[in-house]
Specification:
single chain, about 375 residues, alpha/beta, Glycerol-3-phosphate (1)-acyltransferase, about 10% strand, globular
Length: about 375
């Protein structure tokens, strides 16, 4: 399957050599010292060098790293819906997207805990420009979404990725995680980009979209953080967009965001996996015979699932009440929780910049607005 070499993760036969190439890297030492603070370097290096599969690397090292992140920077992860999934079955998880690394890492930890098939996960190639990060992503079963291409190259790249995703799901029985849109949600409005579904549809060989989307077993995923560890870092881009300016990232911005997401305080986190979309696809096919309209309708069904099951936290209600100058949700949070949130706002955002304050509050308040439409 050489056609996928430009985007695929390592094969198990390549794992050991790849580990030997990065085991001495300072960032590997930092990761392992964080994960196993009591363990001598020589011991984890020896264990790493005995690793010969992605599953062993994920279970023995990355899973432990995720547990340490939860212990150090959260007040716990809760889940719902995983009991409805079948073991040994692959699913296409289409998820809202808040954090570069954590969203998929936490989902995989939950899949592992529940004895379910873990995912191959999409990651933008702009995030793994450094050779160590590229190796780590390929060790962790990430496949690359190629960015910054011409329209013709983008079409070819989309087709390649769609074929690879179909290969994983239908031939290798490997689950796949993909975000509902390019990039993380920065304004709190989770919405599926139909373009993502059009890309996935390119993997359909017989052009029957309903049958194909049934075969790949789409499962919407909703992830919510009580505190977004990268909330303030999202502000410059939101400000630029509000002023109709083109936003240009700083040189190390992606890496800084990646790091902040891992070590920043998140308080509580919840992941909900929805039910496999099946009857919904039949209803869409019965109502629309136009593939574009079918894809638009499917995007709405995914949004409905994600927004209905999105877990709201006191921070969301506090932000809503401050933003709209109301006490509508005051019964859902304490004065201490409100003071803590206001302190965070004060420390991270310039109070004299009204637009920035409003954007920060909207990021937390918009999920309340969106979810209320379903209540």
């Amino acid at each position: 399957m050489q056609k996928f070499d430009a985007i695929r993760p390592y094969y198990d036969a390549e794992i050991n050599e790849a580990i030997h190439n990065v085991v001495q890297h300072p960032m590997m030492k930092a990761l392992m010292n964080f994960t196993f603070p009591e363990v001598d370097d020589a011991i984890w290096k020896e264990q790493l060098k005995k690793t010969h599969s992605i599953r062993d690397f994920q279970c023995n090292f990355i899973y432990q790293s995720v547990q340490k992140v939860l212990e150090k920077s959260s007040e716990g992860l809760t889940t719902s819906g995983f009991e409805k999934l079948d073991k040994n079955t692959s699913y296409l998880f289409i998820s809202n997207h808040r954090d570069i690394i954590l969203d998929t890492s936490l989902l995989n930890a939950c899949l592992f805990d529940n004895g379910l098939v873990m995912t191959a996960s999409a990651i933008g190639d702009n995030l793994v420009k450094k050779s160590f990060l590229l190796s780590l992503s390929k060790l962790n079963r990430n496949f690359l979404v190629q960015r910054g291409l011409s329209p013709r190259e983008m079409l070819m790249s989309s087709k390649l990725m769609a074929e690879y995703i179909a290969q994983l799901l239908l031939r290798e029985n490997r689950s796949v995680w993909i975000a509902q849109r390019e990039g993380r949600t920065k304004d709190g409005n989770d919405a599926t980009n139909p373009g993502v579904l059009k890309m996935l549809a390119m993997g359909c060989e017989d052009k029957n979209l309903t049958n194909y989307f049934k075969k790949v077993k789409i499962v919407p995923v909703s992830i919510s953080y009580e505190y977004d560890p990268t909330d303030a870092l999202k502000m410059p881009q939101l400000m630029a967009e509000a002023n109709d300016e083109i936003y240009i990232k700083e040189k190390n911005e992606d890496f800084l965001t990646l790091l902040s997401g891992i070590i920043g305080q998140k308080k509580h986190i919840h992941i909900h996996v929805g039910e496999v979309l099946n009857s919904e696809l039949d209803e869409i096919a019965a109502e629309y015979d136009n593939s574009n309209k079918q894809i638009q309708a499917l995007a709405q069904v995914i949004d409905d699932s994600i927004l209905k099951s999105y877990k709201l936290w006191p921070t969301n209600f506090i932000a809503y009440d401050i933003l709209y100058k109301t006490d509508k949700y005051s019964h859902l949070y304490t004065e201490d929780e409100k003071s803590l949130f206001e302190r965070r706002l004060e420390l991270k955002i310039d109070a004299t910049n009204e637009m920035m304050v409003e954007s920060f509050l909207s990021m937390y308040a918009n999920p309340v607005v969106n979810k209320s439409k379903y209540d």
